[in-house]
């Protein structure tokens, strides 16, 4: 979902995504390739260097693969947006990074989807307010639709998406950008063009970033924040910032099934700590699982949500006056 640090340079793409060993580390990182391929969308950091590393180095190494040969794609990813679909679902990857860079203040606070992307959504994907396709819609983006932490979500593409959907159509939206894991209740918001957008929101940007996980949600009630992960661990071997508190690196898995009631299971996991305090990808920690389906009108339905970790924070909204504590009164631990 984007943001290859620090500015998406070709060298950073090679070190952080293509497995080339940098001088300052024991090994590089290879972006995982699924059985049939892997796709990506950009964030704002890739465009701090004008996207050259992302387009010229990363995309040619992604796309559709032969399951018997995952060394190079048979059809490389050509654009920074894409569509994956089956009989029940359509997953749409959006490029919100392209319009995010500003020469004046680095980050554009009013992000719009590019015209080329909007034309593709209308003419190729077939999104419109009168569409007859009743499959469930899942949108991936880097930037958030709303945030319990930021005063402004720094995005203005909600109205563009709302204009392409039938009135009241419920969708699932997953984004990154904020370096935390958070879950929002189903809600309907008014966009800048006074249109309505109804969605379930999930931020899956938890990526081992320092300090941000300690911030408390300022707008948990307003944004209907449901869960978030504020667990921290300390990276003891950092020579420059010893005992630096970090949020847990995490990811989500999606399993599509075909039953009478459930057609999608999403599990949210993080890396685990060994007994000596080192991160490991073995035996990942399962935080939460969701079961989803689609009704006859194409609305996404959340059939079940279950927490598997008692350290995941759940927000409880109450109108009663609470005494002052070190933790906000909106938050309790499951």
Total number of beta strands:
20
Helix/strand class: mainly beta
Question: What strand line-up does the widest sheet have?
Answer: 4-5-8-9-11-10-12-19-20
Give the SSE order as H and E letters: HEHEEEEEEHEHEEEEEEEEEEEE
Summarize the structure.
The protein has helices spanning 10-16, 52-58, 115-123, 158-162; strands at 37-38, 63-64, 75-76, 82-85, 89-93, 101-102, 106-107, 136-141, 170-175, 181-190, 196-204, 225-228, 232-235, 244-247, 250-256, 264-273, 279-294, 300-307, 313-315, 331-333. By secondary structure, the chain is mainly beta.
Could you name the key traits of this structure?
4-stranded antiparallel sheet; mainly beta; 2 domains; globular; disordered C terminus; 33% strand; 4 helices; 9-stranded mixed sheet; 8% helix; 334 residues
Description:
With 334 residues, this protein is mainly β. The chain has helices spanning 10-16, 52-58, 115-123, 158-162, and strands at 37-38, 63-64, 75-76, 82-85, 89-93, 101-102, 106-107, 136-141, 170-175, 181-190, 196-204, 225-228, 232-235, 244-247, 250-256, 264-273, 279-294, 300-307, 313-315, 331-333. The strands form five sheets. It has a nine-stranded mixed β-sheet with strand order 4-5-8-9-11-10-12-19-20. It has a four-stranded antiparallel β-sheet with strand order 15-16-17-18, with no helix packed on it. It has a three-stranded antiparallel β-sheet with strand order 1-2-3, with no helix packed on it. β13 (232-235) and β14 (244-247) form a beta hairpin. The longest helix is centred in the middle third of the chain and has 9 residues, at 115-123.
């Amino acid at each position: 979902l984007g943001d290859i640090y620090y500015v998406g340079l070709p060298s950073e793409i090679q070190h952080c995504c293509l497995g080339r060993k940098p001088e300052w580390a024991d090994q590089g990182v290879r972006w995982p390739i699924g059985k049939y391929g892997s796709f990506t969308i950009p964030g704002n950091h890739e465009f701090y260097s004008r996207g050259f590393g992302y387009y010229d180095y990363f995309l040619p190494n992604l796309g559709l693969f032969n399951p018997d040969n995952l060394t190079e794609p048979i059809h490389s990813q050509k654009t920074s947006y894409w569509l994956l679909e089956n009989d029940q679902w359509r997953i749409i990857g959006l490029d919100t990074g392209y319009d995010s860079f500003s020469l004046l203040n680095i980050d554009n606070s009013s992000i719009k989807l590019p015209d080329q992307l909007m034309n593709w959504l209308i003419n190729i994907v077939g999104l419109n307010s009168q569409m007859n396709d009743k499959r469930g819609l899942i949108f991936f983006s880097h930037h958030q639709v709303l945030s319990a932490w930021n005063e402004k979500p720094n995005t203005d593409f909600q109205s563009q998406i709302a204009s392409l959907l039938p009135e009241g159509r419920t969708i699932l939206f997953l984004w990154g950008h904020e370096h935390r894991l958070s879950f929002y209740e189903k809600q309907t918001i008014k966009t800048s063009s006074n249109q309505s957008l109804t969605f379930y929101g999930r931020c899956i940007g938890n990526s081992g970033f320092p300090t941000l996980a300690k911030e408390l949600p300022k707008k948990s009630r307003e944004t209907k924040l449901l869960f978030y992960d504020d667990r921290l661990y300390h990276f003891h071997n950092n020579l420059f910032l010893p005992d630096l508190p970090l949020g847990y690196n995490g990811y989500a898995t999606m399993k599509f099934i075909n039953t009478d009631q459930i057609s999608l299971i999403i599990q949210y996991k993080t890396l685990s700590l060994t007994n000596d305090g080192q991160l490991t990808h073995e035996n990942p920690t399962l935080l939460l699982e969701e079961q989803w389906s689609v009704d006859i009108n194409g609305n996404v339905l959340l059939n079940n949500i279950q927490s598997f970790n008692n350290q995941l924070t759940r927000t409880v909204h109450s109108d009663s006056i609470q005494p002052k504590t070190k933790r906000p009164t909106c938050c309790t631990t499951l």
